[in-house]
Design brief:
The complex is a heterodimer of chains A (95) and B (483).
Chain A (H helix, E strand, L loop, with lengths): L4 H10 L6 H22 L19 E2 L9 H5 L5 E2 L2 E5 L4
Antiparallel strand pairs in A: 2-3
Chain B lengths: L3 E12 L24 H4 L8 E2 H13 L7 E2 L2 E4 L9 E4 L9 E9 L2 E16 L3 E7 L2 E5 L6 E7 L6 H17 L12 E11 L9 E6 L2 H20 L8 E5 L4 E4 L12 E2 L6 E2 L2 H9 L5 H12 L3 H7 L3 H14 L2 H19 L10 H12 L5 H13 L4 H7 L8 H14 L1 H8 L6 H12 L5 H13 L3
Classes of the chains: A mainly alpha (95), B alpha+beta (483).
């Protein structure tokens, strides 16, 4: 399986990772070797094997529907770069 | 009829009416101050873990049973990855491959020119997910303000098959869903507050063909009316394009209610790629037969069953049953009102007439009607026992709305009781007849329409309190008798 620099840039963009010009080339090699490993695993016969959705073999526990959290807005907002009137502020984004 | 057939599928997001959020113990309430209801889990702070709310699971199962759906033996959550400021984790916890609710169906009643038509609409799936926060773009120049109170609100996304064939059917489907989620008690269905929102996938194809046309998706329709208008606009737009030799582009469009049009959202340079994968923070959830049967035992009456019951129990027409049986609150009001009135048909008429227009005018839900079902029933009973006329009843109703509730007290205090003394009425009839010889001549010459004039005169003299039937009889007897 081969990938090109354009695919690497696309994946980096989706994950919002900045790439230097020479890094794309390096990641092509890394990703191709990972995909090569996946290719080899595909050769293993898995017919009849139940997919494993999670390595821990227990079911999800449920939480009773009660309010247990206090309002901690002031505390949380001390970490925010910018707030006003209780809102978090970010550079303007419009779809 | 146009040569094009419309094909619509709806995705409906329903906010579930839990006390707390889907994965955290923060309160799930609308209208709090910004960010007062966003806990560390909702904010996606490092080191937190989501824990699934059991009420959310139960509500999804209730919905699944209501639409006769297959319920997944094991359901799993997945991460849907995208970047937006109101999604602090960088992913939304949703479901992809193993939704809790599988294929089901919903019967809808579509009003047509030829009468009501019943159609069965396929439900593809319904899955659980968390809502995102809210971004406000127009408050501060150059900045977006983010309120994360809504982040983590439980949503049930209900996806229909492309089985709907017109805007009218789409609205009927959404109305039925709305009634069901309210009856099930899983959502308040309040569309103004965003408790129920809808995306519509719309395409057209030449009538008689089977292949689907290219579809567009109209996002975020938050009222029945907008859904109808947006689909109608979009269908016309697509017909125009295809008939002028153009091609439909698969894209997401927004409905602008002020201009009544849909327009393309700026298309992203790249197609959406959410890179779903199973959320390692949440284990697969087994839905046991025991859980399902516990929910099944607590299922309330659903809209369709209720409409049938109202028809049988009260002898209502299909039309009346559909209206007073539209939702549980209206049906309860009707049942209490009919019991107090002793007349189901009259109770239905008043609820669909005077009461409905009052609620419409005041923008009130029937739960908050200023006149209780019992009082309206008593008022109707007073029409039936001839204490007041229907016309006076409307006056009493208006007073009940503005001043107070007890119709008997209002009738007494204002002396609105129908004149029961036939001697007094006879005297007034004599007076009016004697005072208007010209009209008497006209009546006797065969112009019987002047009877209305006499009725009006006597009514005026009694302040509207004469029993109309009795008055008619006395007048006719007096005029026909001669002298």
């Amino acid at each position: 399986m081969s990938i090109d620099a354009e695919q690497v840039r696309r994946i980096a963009h989706l994950a919002r990772i900045g790439l230097a010009a020479d890094e794309a080339q390096r990641y092509i090699g890394d990703l191709e070797s990972i995909l090569g490993m996946v290719e080899r695993m595909r050769a293993v016969p898995t017919d009849g094997v139940v997919p494993l959705p999670h390595p821990i073999d227990v079911g999800q526990r449920l939480r009773p529907d009660v309010v247990t959290e206090q309002d901690e807005r002031e505390l949380f907002q001390t970490d925010a770069p910018a707030v006003a009137d209780g809102f978090y502020l970010v550079p303007r984004v419009v779809e | 009829m146009s040569g094009w057939e419309t094909v619509i599928g709806l995705e409906v997001h329903v906010q579930l009416a839990t006390a707390s959020k889907i994965f955290s113990g923060a309160p799930n309430r609308f209208g709090a101050e910004p960010n007062r209801q966003a806990s560390a889990v909702d904010l996606g702070l490092p080191g937190v873990l989501p824990v699934l709310n059991e009420a959310v699971v139960e509500m999804a199962l209730r919905f699944g049973l209501a639409v006769e759906a297959q319920i997944a033996p094991v359901t799993q959550f997945a991460r849907k990855n995208y970047f937006y400021p109101d999604l602090p984790k960088g992913y939304q916890i949703s479901q992809l491959d193993h939704p809790i609710i599988g294929p089901g169906r919903l019967e809808i009643v579509v009003p047509t020119a030829a009468g009501d038509e019943t159609r069965t609409i396929g439900i593809t799936r319904a899955h659980l997910e968390e809502d995102a926060g809210k971004s406000i773009h127009d408050q501060l120049p150059g900045l977006t303000a983010v309120d994360l109170n809504r982040a983590g609100t439980p949503l049930l996304e209900i996806v229909s098959e492309p089985d709907l064939r017109s805007a009218t059917e789409a609205v009927a489907y959404l109305r039925e869903l709305h009634a069901i989620v309210r009856d099930l008690g899983i959502s308040d269905g309040n569309m103004n507050e965003g408790s129920m929102r809808c995306d519509a996938n719309v395409s057209i194809r030449p009538r008689g063909t089977r292949e689907f046309g290219t579809r567009t998706e109209i996002k975020n329709l938050n009222s029945f009316r907008f859904l109808e208008k947006a689909i109608e606009f979009e269908v016309e737009r697509q017909i125009e394009i295809l008939e002028s030799g153009g091609r439909i582009i698969q894209e997401t469009r927004l409905y602008d209610a002020e201009r009544n049009e849909t327009r393309s959202m700026r298309s992203k340079e790249e197609a959406e790629d959410y890179r779903y994968f199973p959320d390692p923070d949440l284990l697969p959830l087994a839905i046991t037969p025991k859980m399902i049967s516990a929910v099944a035992r607590s299922m309330p009456e659903l809209p369709r069953a209720r409409r049938e019951r109202l028809r049988e129990q009260f002898g209502l027409s299909e039309y009346d049953a559909r209206h007073v049986g539209a939702d549980r609150a209206t049906a309860s009001y009707f049942e209490a009102c009919a019991a107090a009135a002793g007349d189901a048909k009259l109770a239905a008429n008043w609820i669909m007439g005077e009461l409905a227009s009052l609620l419409n005018r005041e923008e009130l839900e029937i739960e908050h009607a200023p006149v209780t079902a019992e009082s309206l029933g008593t008022l109707i009973a007073r029409i039936r026992d001839a204490t007041i006329s229907s016309k006076i009843a409307k006056t009493v109703f208006d007073i009940m709305v503005t001043e107070g509730d007890d119709p008997d007290a209002i009738i007494e205090a204002r002396g609105l009781r129908q004149m029961s003394d036939s001697g007094e009425l006879q005297r007034l009839v004599d007076e009016v007849v004697t005072a208007n010889p010209a009209q008497v001549e006209q009546f006797r010459a065969g112009k019987t329409k002047v009877l209305g004039f006499f009725v009006g005169q006597v009514m005026k003299a009694t302040g509207g309190k004469a029993n109309p039937q009795q008055l008619n009889e006395l007048l006719r007897a007096r005029l026909e008798d001669g002298d």
